[in-house]
Amino acid sequence: MTAPADSARSRAGLGLFASPQTRYWLLIAPALLLMGVFYIYPIGRVLWMSVTVPAPGLDNYELLASSASIQRMLWTTARISVLTTIFTLLLAYVVAYALVHSSPRVQRWMFLGVLVPLWISVLVRAFAWFVLLRREGLINSALMATGVTDSPLSLIWNETGVMIGMVHYMLPLGILPIFSNMRDIDQRCIAAARGLGASRFEAFWRVFLPLSLPGVVGASILVFIFSLGFFVTPALLGGGKTLMIAEYIKVQILEVVRWGVASMLAAVLLIVIGVLLAALSRLVNLRKLFGAG
Amino acid sequence: MMEKQSFAEDCRALAAELGSGQTRRDLIRSALALGVAPAALALGGGAARAQSGKEVVLVNFGGVAMKAFDEAFVKPFAAQGGKIVLDGSGALNGKILTMVQSRHVTWDICDAGITTLAELGPHGALEKIDYSIVDKKKLDPTFAYDEGVVNYMFSSVLAWDKSKVSGEPTLADFFDTKKYPGRRMMRKDSQAMLELALMADGVPKDKLYPLDVKRAFAKIATIKKDLLFWNSGSESQSLMRDGECVMGLLWHTRANVLADETQGRVTYTFKDGLLQPGLWVVPKGNPAGKEAMRAIASMQQPEGQVKLLAAMGNGPANPAADALVPAELKKKNPSDAANAAIQAKINAEWYKANHSKTFQSFLDLISS
Amino acid sequence: MTMTATIPGHDLSISRVSKTFGTFKAVKDVSLDIKGGEFLTMLGPSGSGKTTLLMMIAGFVQPDQGSIHLDKQPITHLPPESRNFGMVFQGYALFPHLSVFDNVAFPLKVRRRPRAEIEEKVKAALELVKLTTQSERLPRQLSGGQQQRVALARALVFTPHLLLLDEPLSALDKKLRAELQEELKRLHRKVGLSFIYVTHDQDEALSMSDRIVVMSDGRLVEQGTPSELYDRPRTAFVADFLGKSNFVRGKVESHVGDGFVFSGDGVRFVQKARDAKPGIGSKVTVALRPEKLSIVAPGTESDNRLSGVVREWNYFGSEFRVLVDTAGCGPISVSLPAWTAGNAPEVGQSLELGWSARAGMEVQEA
User: Fold this and answer.
1) C30: which residues sit within 8 A by CB, 6+ positions away?
2) What is the pLDDT at residue C337?
3) Structure confidence at residue A15 (pLDDT)
4) Contact A256 B356 (CB under 8 A)
5) Per residue in A51-95, pLDDT tens?
6) How much of chain B, in percent, has pLDDT values that exceed 90?
7) Are the beta carbons of A195 and C85 separated by less than 8 Å?
8) Is C77 on the interface with A (CB under 8 A)?
9) With 60 as the cut, is the pLDDT of residue C51 above it?
10) Considering CB atoms only, which of C58, C97, C109 is closest to A195?
């Protein structure tokens, strides 16, 4: 009768690690704890504050309906985010298309060009745009020297400037998901379309474009979410006149100390992003989009 | 992150730029000065902690201001047997309030301003200044408040680009785009900007308060499309230096630097400026207790304050310092008697009741 | 819908085309004529240039030199969509986002045909390939064989001038492949178009084609009907690639009747000449099909005899394959009908192989 004794011993030896299930839970426990303490708890606090500060109730949320300034700020945020997303996607699509159709050698250089901006501080990039776009900047000087315009164009200190800066920042975020999707498109399908009588454009329109849509949807939600929370570029290139939600929240927390309003807006942002991500996960494979697939 | 800077914060940034001999076009350094550095320093700054009741933790915005504060304040206090420990992590309103509310106060004295008084006072987050220890005779009593006391003076002034503006413009000209066409800039804050707008509109400088906010907003709205709003001191400096704006309302410290680096192309006047105090505030329940008051009293000595003026351009708070200021620094000193006489003085009481609401409306005005 | 009626085929003429990719010469000076209605197979190992040639016909690859004509009209530089050729790709290349119906309707839609015509023609094309119930499904919901049928219907629905097929059956298992080979032949007879079929599978080529073009190393090596190429190959390459062959090499010693005697390594053989008899002393290569050899009893009459020892044998159901180590001619493979299994030789046994002077094929070394 050695078998039962063995199993009893091994059970005693494993102790806590009784089933593989428990063991895996134990392995991720530290990470879960870390997440709980440093992520879930603060977010919970923010949500809680949004209904308790300065007084319990939904007063803070009521501002969404009653405060013209919050509505205007939300509208600005939404408008700039939508426009940024549209322009980013148009450009990203063209770049991704060129990337997919380049030789591996050219592709490597193009990738470098796409990725290098990611490693440069957003502040530095905003200042680089400042150098290019300002009244006596490179672009206006060139336009006036060549006689295209007589007076400098207002390319900065307004929503145009904000958009240029934001689209530039978002481009890699738009290009990568679209590229990864385009790379998976079977090129023979495009050849087949041509062989079956479709012109270059029609093969693109009827076959390539529909097949690349999952990447476009993924990229658009990603870019839109990032745009919603954007702070530095609007603050720097907007001439102080473009007030988006992130800056608004910052002012409420650090300057006028209206934490209830700030946490309400943070909660709104959180919910909007959560809903968008849920929609995204239904439309495309999130794991693949973020490179885990 | 890039945030709207307080004057105290900008002192640090400006000192960093001057100390490093920054070139005119060194934009990357400006970017660092703008936002990245305070955040980075905040990580290391928290280390300074009061070990006993005798050690006083003084929070400023770090950088080269650390060295200037050390010379001006820490060493003299040490000579008197006290000890000040500097912490460069920057005392923003929200940070102080978090500390007080969580009953884990590690700061004794914070380099702050009127808005700190206005925002944190109502929350009961500040200790009363003990004027039995801090000497009211060594300061302009206008700037001695219950929960904060002046540590240095600064000014919001009108600057202009002589290559684009002929003659000597007035505040009224700042709002007259027909007379002087071109873009202008002001700070992205209601403080000082409203006062200057009202003076431009004809309100005498000693009858500003209570501020007629509506009138000020209406005045600003007349030139809104020609206005830019700066966040940080270095941003205001580069906008003028690079010719983006023909006129601007900015801090005198930045105006001084601009005048130097543009060889006088950009110049400014203290006339109809707004004289504002930098304040020492003490968070409620500070670890060093009354020792903080003794440290503040020590920092009232004129010698240290003159050192700060020479290093960073901050005007001495003690009128007795005037006699010690060298002649070439006098015209750059906002609290110099001659300069102070032609400026308005800020009224903290009004801000206590109105800052939050007014600033919010100001943001609405400029972003709509 | 006239798909069941015979459509007059179109003649395709390829004249001296070459194509180089970088330093790789994919196709070297190939000329080929394809008659209307013909089932032509381009056969060759991978890298032989057959697919490149097909892509030049389709218009996806531009030849560096040479020209291609359809019914005497030059089409060398016409883009693929203007050639009106049907094409079935390796792996089918169905449009994954379109239903079966829309896949098949695609060529008609890009030709802006009226809706009613599209409905009618798609239905007929799907009937033609015996796929009528799945038209609303997406390609990934179909089996490999069904996908193949969709690809065929899509390539035929717009009445193309000819049909190009690039290894269309290579992804299917053996049984399904045989079934679809039958299907393709039936379709070919029914629609009467020229089929140009690329494969590396010799059985497929032999069973389906009117004519086979064998390619190797970018060149057209040999062409002919399946039986011409199998029974009377002109080159050692074709003799070996199309079915298996043993090779016996030697020098011509004398001429006899309609043939000649040659000897290799001391053994003397008689061989019927293909055309003119080779000169005395010249080198010859003779290919021998394993199934044309037999084991002969000592003393039996045979044109040629070769003795050897059995190295190994394998049973293949319908046949035995015996490998014999011979003196002078190396290992020779012999195929015996399985019904002779009773007297299958043992490993190590000595025996004599025999064949007639007409069984061998005089071939040229590549």
Assistant:
1) C14, C16, C17, C18, C49, C53, C66, C215, C218, C219, C220
2) 82
3) 53
4) yes
5) 998 889 899 999 999 988 899 999 999 999 999 999 999 999 999
6) 68
7) yes
8) no
9) yes
10) C58
CATH 3.30.930.10 fits C244-363, yes or no: no
The 10s digit of each residue's pLDDT in A271-293 is 999 998 888 788 776 666 555 44
Mutate to test the interface with C, among A184, A194, A196, A202 (most CBs of C within 10 A): A196
Q: In the structure, what pLDDT confidence band is assigned to residue C12 with cuts at 50, 70 and 90?
A: very high
H or E segment and range at residue C71: none
Is the pTM higher than 0.90? no
The CATH number of the structural domain formed by A66-289 is 1.10.3720.10
Question: A-C interface: how many C-beta pairs under 8 angstroms?
Answer: 72
Chain A, 168-197: which have a CB under 8 Å from a chain C CB? 186, 188-189, 191-197
Structure tokens that stand for B232 in this block: 């940080």
pLDDT in tens, C242-257: 888 999 999 999 998 8
The ranges of chain B annotated as CATH 3.40.190.10 are 7-153+276-335, 155-275+348-367
A193 CA: distance to closest CA in chain C (Å): 8
Q: For domain B7-153+276-335, say whether CATH 3.40.190.10 is its number.
A: yes
pLDDT of residue B4: 64
Choose the closest CB to C110 out of A188, A189, A197. A197
Minimal-distance CA residue of chain B relative to A262: B94
Helices (H), chain C: 50-58, 100-110, 115-128, 144-156, 174-191, 202-208, 226-231, 236-241
CA distances (Å), origin A102, targets A96, A98, C74, C336: 10, 6, 31, 56
What class does CATH assign to B155-275+348-367?
alpha beta
Res. C4: pLDDT tops 50: no
Q: C81, A194: Cβ pair inside 8 Å?
A: yes
Place of tokens 């010690």: B324
A261: closest CA of chain B, how far (Å): 12
Q: Which helix (H) or strand (E) holds B290?
A: none
When scoring C89, C99, C161, C164 by the number of chain A Cβ atoms within 10 A, the one with the most, hence best to mutate, is: C89
Tell me: pLDDT of C50 over 50: yes
**Would you list the domain boundaries of chain C?**
12-239, 244-363
Residue contact C87–A195, C-beta within 8 A: yes
* Maximum distance among all Cα pairs of chain A, rounded to whole angstroms: 101
Residue-wise pLDDT tens digits, B161-193: 999 999 999 999 999 999 999 999 999 999 999
B70-93 pLDDT, tens per residue? 999 999 999 988 999 999 888 888
Q: Distance (Å) from the C-alpha of residue C31 to the closest C-alpha of chain A?
A: 23
C93/A189 touch (CB, cutoff 8 Å), yes or no = yes
Q: Residue B217 pLDDT more than 90? A: yes
Q: What share of chain A is helix, strand, coil (3-state, %, to 5)?
A: 80, 0, 20
Cβ contacts of B244 on chain A, cutoff 8 Å: 134-136, 157
Q: What is the mean pLDDT of chain C?
A: 89
Which chain A residues have a beta carbon less than 8 Å from that of B228?
157, 239-241
The answer to whether domain C12-239 has CATH 3.40.50.720 is no
C-alpha–C-alpha distance, residues C210 and C185, integer Å: 10
Cβ–Cβ < 8 Å for B186, B193: yes
